[in-house]
Amino acid sequence: MKTTFYMSLLLAGLHAVAHGQLLPSHHNGHDTNEHKHHAHEAIACLKLVPNNADFAFQFFKEITLEAPNKNIFFSPVSISTAFAMLALGARSTTQTQILEGLTFNLTEIQEKEIQEGFHNLIHMLSHPEGGVQLNMGNAIFLTEKLKPLKKFLDDAKALYQLEAFTTDFNNPMEAEKQINDYIERKTHGKIADLVKDMDPQTVMLLATFVFFKGSWEKPFKPEHTEEREFFVDAEMTVKVPMMYQTGRFDLYFDEELSCTVVRLHYNGSATAFLVLPAKGKMKQLEETLVKETVQEWSEHLFQSLVSLYFPKFSISGSYEITNTLNKMGIVDVFTDQADLSGITGTPDLKVSKVVHKAALDVDERGTEAAAGTAAEILTLSIHPTIEFNRPFLMLIFDRDTNSTLFIGKIVNPTITS
Fold first, then answer.
1. Considering the entire predicted model, what is its pTM?
2. What residues contact 150, with CB distance under 8 A and at least 6 apart?
3. DSSP states of 263-297
4. CATH 3.30.497.10: does it fit domain 3-215+314-361?
5. What is the CATH code for 222-311+370-410?
6. Which residues form the Serpin domain (predicted)?
7. pLDDT digit string (tens) for 68-113?
8. CA 185, 189, 194, 200 torsion: positive or negative?
9. 217 with 266: CB under 8 angstroms?
10. What is the residue extent of each domain of the chain?
11. DSSP strand pairing (237-254 vs 226-231)
12. CB 394 within 8 A of CB 273
């Protein structure tokens, strides 16, 4: 009988504040040594980028199949990081399944390179440029009886900034409070009540979280926000506060996928792609979206003066993702076949379930706009209007590492969870 451990993953809190003209990221005031260090880290995590992106879009496809016509919001980088850390303590087939489930080809990249890559990725994401706040972290909560190997704890601390805590799972309410308080504190209140109904048999819980707060390069003006209609589907319309501004935006019309893409930069190194499929074309987009699609959008963007309407909304996604990961080939770790002997030295440990929760706020706020916004003067000229008044996708990337921080599908912006 395997002892189970509960992976209460991925707590992603995102607060996005609104807009921007697309400018390349600038690095100011860094000395040469810092540049060299940055470059080394970038090279180390560069190897992970294609795999992490493949994992992100595969996971998105699975989640959309499980929850059709619902809001979706999750952090792929959070899920990847948690399972890469778990792979540190996995052995044999269990470890292979985890790494291959994260879409790594183990004939092309070694486990050591993967671990170093994630270590550098976490470091780079945790030290972003000014204007973006991004906190990532990992914590392990252990029953007193379970003694993890010193090597596992040392490696996990060094590579993943892991914090370890002793927890009394025999008292589930007390354990839940300890874990939820820790997560809530670390995500600045964005993720609350992550774990509930804990099994008293739990002996270890692994939590991974990411908190993001970004301000648009040019915020929307609150006085321009007005209630407008949002068409959830053919039968249902809701009223939403719709933000508005006229300006030069990076655009692309993807004729093949019948969607409009608008790219907005945050201050710092984060970028949002807002993707508005034509009516009835969301399913086609969900089924075909891959990293190459986003790459193509990036390469074909052009600047154009438009009137942009974008809803102000808050949503969160909460998922029990064990089945999703099963479909992606991560199977043994959840069964009595699990080999997590690298964590405790004995093979009697398995993951009981994996919980992922993510939250997103989008509103007008941001840093003060730079003086002299020429676009404001051009509001009388004739230009197209793009209004996000039907279901759309929102993809948030970190430009420095090319990491997919968050993927969201907003079907109904008035439903918060």
1. 0.87
2. none
3. EEEBSSSEEEEEEEEPTT-HHHHHHH--HHHHHHH
4. yes
5. 2.30.39.10
6. 57-413
7. 889 999 999 989 999 999 999 999 999 999 999 999 999 999 999 9
8. positive
9. yes
10. 3-215+314-361, 222-311+370-410
11. antiparallel
12. yes
